[in-house]
Amino acid sequence: MVVTDGDGRVLYCSPAQHGSCADITHARQLGLVRPLDGGPALEILADAGYQGLGAQTGGRVVTPPHRKFKKNAPNWYEEMHERQRKAHSSRRIRVEHGIAHLKNWRALARHLGRREHISDTVQAIAGLLSHQQTADLTSARQM
């Protein structure tokens, strides 16, 4: 799980878990639900893997709209759903870019080491990327 700010800079990268785990379960196991429920009023743009977390956090986690009709949806519903989905996607694009910057590092793109070490590798690269993005931001402000 990766958390970025509004400009796509990496703020947090969770440790990897062994085996397959749903996104929402991972967030609950890390204990991220309780601080969001009573914490500051902020908005977290999440993907569809976190649907249902918005109700548990007082609406702070915003996910793409859930489909109510599986088959034979009315035309008005299809159009409304597509507009809402595109609006969410447009707002979330910077988050996706931040995650893409993380995935572009060769050590993650072509990980050849042991699975037991991937979590340490991800954490190290997230730290390097965060430092690089902070340095770029600082140098841009000095110009």
Portion of residues within helices: 40-55%
Instruction: Tell me, rounded to a whole number, the average pLDDT.
Output: 82
Biggest β-sheet, characterized?
A: 2 strands, antiparallel
Strand order in space, largest sheet:
1-2
Overall 3D shape: globular
Integer-rounded radius of gyration: 18 Å
Treating each run of at least 4 consecutive H or I residues as one helix, how many helices? 6
Spatial gap, N to C terminus: 34 Å
Low-confidence stretches: none
Q: Could you say which structural class the secondary elements and strand pairing correspond to?
A: mainly alpha
User: How many beta-strand elements?
Assistant: 4
Provide the number of structural domains.
1
Cofactor: a divalent metal cation
Keywords: Metal-binding
Pfam families: DDE_Tnp_4
Protein name: DDE Tnp4 domain-containing protein
Question: Could you walk me through the main structural features you see in this protein, from its secondary elements to its overall organization?
Answer:
The protein is mostly helical and 143 residues long. The protein has six helices and four strands.
Which SSEs are present, and which pair or pack?
Elements: E1 2-4, E2 10-13, H1 23-29, H2 33-38, E3 44-45, H3 53-56, E4 61-62, H4 75-103, H5 106-109, H6 118-142
Parallel strand pairs: 3-4
Antiparallel strand pairs: 1-2
Organism: Streptomyces similanensis
Cofactor: a divalent metal cation
Protein name: DDE Tnp4 domain-containing protein
Kindly list the characteristics that best describe this protein.
143 residues, mainly alpha, two-stranded antiparallel sheet, two-stranded parallel sheet, 6 helices, 4 strands, 52% helix
